[in-house]
Amino acid sequence: MVCGRMTLRSKGLSLGVSSRRVASGASGSRRRTVMKADQVATQYATAFVQLANDKNVLDDVRSDMDSVASLMKNDAKLSSFLTNPVADSDKKKELIGAIAKEGEFSALSSNFLCLLVDKQRIGGIADICDSFENIYCEVTDTEVATVTSAAALDNDQQFEIAKKLQKLTGAKNIKLKPKVDSSLISGLVIQYGKGGSKLLDMSAKGQLAAIEAQLLSQAPSA
Which label site among 128, 200, 208, 222 has the fewest CB atoms less than 10 Å from its CB? Predict the structure, then answer.
């Protein structure tokens, strides 16, 4: 796969990278700065969000990053290969090319993934995807909510839930992450807020648990 040149810029990060060359800083220094994985992920994600936003392809890139995050989570073999530090870089880029072609990724997303291979940061792609989503949500005023239901929700149901959450949170946009858990019996559970800190439990299972807790609290002590 041939990767184009791209430049990422953000506070604390300025990279001019091609598949064959890493540009040096103004001082010519090649010292490596040791940073925690989450700091690295945040810097790369921030720079990528800024670049995508500047080029007016932020939503397209967000879709690409969602696809990458899903693949890394659900395909153990692919995840193991891409994050293996001794695996061949060219083969990683070939795999990225195949993924990008099948997923119809933007050229910007493909080049970004190649950049991560060149910089030996592809091993942190899952963290970078998480950071990208968080920053994207801040930039676009998007509230992410995980909706767990006893049965799969159709598009109309998801739309109504999103509309109610938009009114509740005041967010400009709502992004739902539907999940199915038959143990809920009926109804649904909605988690939203930073790190899923807020919970709306409207499931039959939750109601039964609440009733049980109330009965136990009212039971006479032995």
Answer: 222
